[in-house]
């Protein structure tokens, strides 16, 4: 059973199973028997001081976005979709002893990452599907940025396909993998951010080192913008998410993550800081991208953050408008799951 990449943990392509840190265990995952709810339980006693601090920061952030109640028991009632500001948020949080549990409505369609097959030459998605998914992701990102939040970890794995309420088979896109979300500016400051997300906090349930033997994997920093990697006085903001979304666009189209095979983070950082020219959209043999897709990709991934479009400007792009007008249904995606 694939619960979905919303669990914020990597997947082993070779064995089609999840790669977790050793199970002495900080994090445990369960799914209800009727497959309506899945939970992530964090054993707080196993977390260090730094992990607890980052976990409390995460909870504070999501409670600012949506007033999620924290219960002191598991009796929390029915869990419903909680999509707010373009994010797929937990329906409830409850504390039982020293175990903290996040409960989510189960998303049967999983994440966009579940549709990709990087071990095949044609492991990406058709442009029409990419267009429909990307356009909905832009709309969710606009909602997030409008409320002055940034994601900082956008990739295909963190783009969740969820069932729209009261619509038969139609899907929306919301961002998961929320351990990196922060306000655009640090609270009490008008400056850009200069920090980088905490990647290996034990409460996130995985370590990037688990993937070092996987030829199709790459470090989370592969999706970071150059200005985010630089950590200079200018800092970074909303354009950093646009850059990551541009790389996710290429990831969906090709099926391959950026900088795949470049496991060492320092080497990825070096490449991002020195390769200031336009990034070329990689295409498999026999694969051709439209001029419109290439234009959107190149505009989103410009080295200079000030030259990238905003999410609002992307919504006015004709290619994106066409994508929003294109139906996105589970029935359109079934064939990619069966490959």
UniProtKB/TrEMBL annotation:
Keyword Iron applies: no
Enzyme Commission designation: 2.7.11.1
Pfam family, one: Pkinase
Domain Protein kinase: 1-320
Database matches in PANTHER family: SERINE/THREONINE-PROTEIN KINASE SAMKA-RELATED-RELATED (PTHR45832), SERINE_THREONINE-PROTEIN KINASE STE20-LIKE-RELATED (PTHR45832:SF16)
Entry-linked InterPro entries: Kinase-like_dom_sf, PAK3-like, Prot_kinase_dom
EC supergroup of this enzyme: transferase
Assigned keywords, A-Z: ATP-binding, Nucleotide-binding
GO molecular function, one term: ATP binding
Species annotation: Rodentolepis nana
Keyword Metal-binding listed: no
Lineage: Eukaryota, Metazoa, Spiralia, Lophotrochozoa, Platyhelminthes
UniProt-recorded name of the protein: non-specific serine/threonine protein kinase
